[in-house]
Amino acid sequence: MTAAQLVINEIKGYHRFLKFMIFLVVLGALASLVRFIFGLGATTNLNDTYPWGLWISFDVVTSVPLAAGAFTIGVVAHVFHIKKLEPLVRPAIVTGFLGYSLVCVGLLLDLGQPQRGINVLRYWNVHSPMFEVSMCVMAYTTVLTLEFLHPVAEKFGWHLPLRLLRTLELPFAILAAMISTLHQSTLGTFFLIAVDKLHNLWYNPLLPLQFWLSAIFTGLSIVVFEASLVHKYMGQPDESELLATLTKIIPWVMAVYMAVKAYALVFLSHGPLFDRPVLLALFLAEVLLGVVAPFCIFLTKRIRSDKRLQLRAASLVVFGLILNRFNVSMFGMEQAGQQVYVPSLIESLVTLGIIAAHILFFVLVAKYFPIFEHHPEVTDYRIPDGFRRIEGHGHKAAGEAVH
Q1: CATH code of the region 3-402
Q2: Over pLDDT 70: what percentage of the chain?
């Protein structure tokens, strides 16, 4: 097969991928429309026993820490002045911006009366953790929007706003860290009211601290995960040398997290821990596969130069975070003998559409905006066609084919 045929096949593969993502987004939009027409009761499996389900457990409780890469890498690069990690910041900001924007969409879908969401700004309940999270999510989404305007200003040549945004990089990074610390930990505070409902394997007074720590090392792992996939499938620069720096930081945070978790489990938990075999299996999977295994991988010297190992360790961390959030917000809440909650088709399609929208928008932003331009050697970052860069004369043909 000639280089030109390879390029054509990759372009076709890229377009098929975009069409499939658009199809999933349209399905999610139609499912959302059905939800608003017929209401929560008719379109979801939520009830008095399960007042929240997939939309809260994944679209909010899980998605918020998965979007934490923006504030974590921002702090590492700007606040701690590790400037060599600068190329990782802008893609992480785009991921965070898209993540938090879609979290807001998920919240609007889950609210029974979403038009009343504005009341959080009209009637302040300063004693409610939900008020604090609402205000922080709105504030942080605003900060991410302003940070996202940086590549937009570069794209359209808005020199004066660009100069201002560059001046505000450090204040934005500090503000993002402060706001994220508040709402990442307060997500854990929600579940402290479930004294008699959340299982003892997860319920303890240090849950907010655990949520915050897990968001930090997961946010850094998301950067590793994202950079690895973007290099593999979108032909972006190989950042494995920069990611090696993150692989030295992540295990330190994971070690603190494991120490806090072990202390809370041994000294702060009350009641039986091993009375529910299924929950015990979920807890062990979360800890062993999602924390201990990647922690051991991050400690190996080989990971500093092995791209596959970096992606594998980061993937395990992401898996562990997702399972932890579902264990706390859903599985650990189920009582013995209680009917098990299973998301409805509408709930599943909406969540699938939100995930597809995140991937689709990121690919399009990466294609049309300079989020990888900290690398001057990258001239054709526009073509994720088939998700691989064609080197040499094939690379030239790819650029010509698009034009």
Answers
A1: 1.20.1630.10
A2: 91
